[in-house]
Write a structure and sequence with these properties.
GO molecular function: dioxygenase activity
Protein name: Glyoxalase/bleomycin resistance protein/dioxygenase
Number of helices: 5
Structural class: alpha+beta
CATH architecture of the largest domain: Roll
CATH class of the largest domain: Alpha Beta
Largest sheet: 8 strands, mixed
Helix content: 10-25%
Radius of gyration: 17 Å
Strand order of the largest sheet: 2-3-4-1-5-8-7-6
Keywords: Dioxygenase, Oxidoreductase, Plasmid
Amino acid sequence: MSTYPNGRFVWFDLMTSDVPAAQAFYTSVVGWSARDAGMPGDYYTLLSAASTDVGGIMPIREHLAAAGAKPTWMMYIGVDDVDAFAARVKDAGGVIHRAPEDIPGVGRFAVVADPHGATFVLFWGNGEPREATPATPGHVGWHELLTEDLDAAWAFYSNLFGWTKAQTVDMGPMGLYQTFVVNGPQGGGMMNKPPNLPVSFWGLYFTVEGSVTAAVERAKEAGGQLLQGPHEVPGGAWIAHCLDPQGATFNLTSATQ
């Protein structure tokens, strides 16, 4: 049995209404390569950065589409006991959207949400967890929570996963931005969401090679939209907020404009 360090971001995937179109879009914009996962009875596309599998794409299930589910990126947080952590999420006021179950030959997972509705996946894998390489193109360079209550959200996640506070940035009228540290070089931030956003959610920043502006242009040429940016953030990175052709939000980051 592998030992997963609790609280480390270990995987991400996209649920979308058009897998082939999404695959073509993101391989062009981010530079991933893609291949079928070969899972019997399931349709799952693996995304790779160089020779490392980093994420995947799958279709929105019919019952979820019927319930109004839209294309969205999901992040997986590693734990050593999915069932125990799912129970802790519920006890802390969160919700279990999909009860713990096995992925044959891969691991065990549960889809949950924090008390303010931001969804994420608890995951334990059969193999060793991937090493975090946030500055490497094709990997997730940052994880960001927009929430209804920053203080309550921090209490929930820090108690659940043991995350520790790093820098607190005063964003003026937008409030405080709390950065945090996970095991190793991983990190992220959280802040109160703007009033125009209807729900709390986790956002992912994909590191791209070279200029973030060039990546934005690739996104627009492939049918995506630029929502905001590019702009520089504390620490010197450049970011841009985007929308893919199927309607999923995503973010790009690079060391250069």
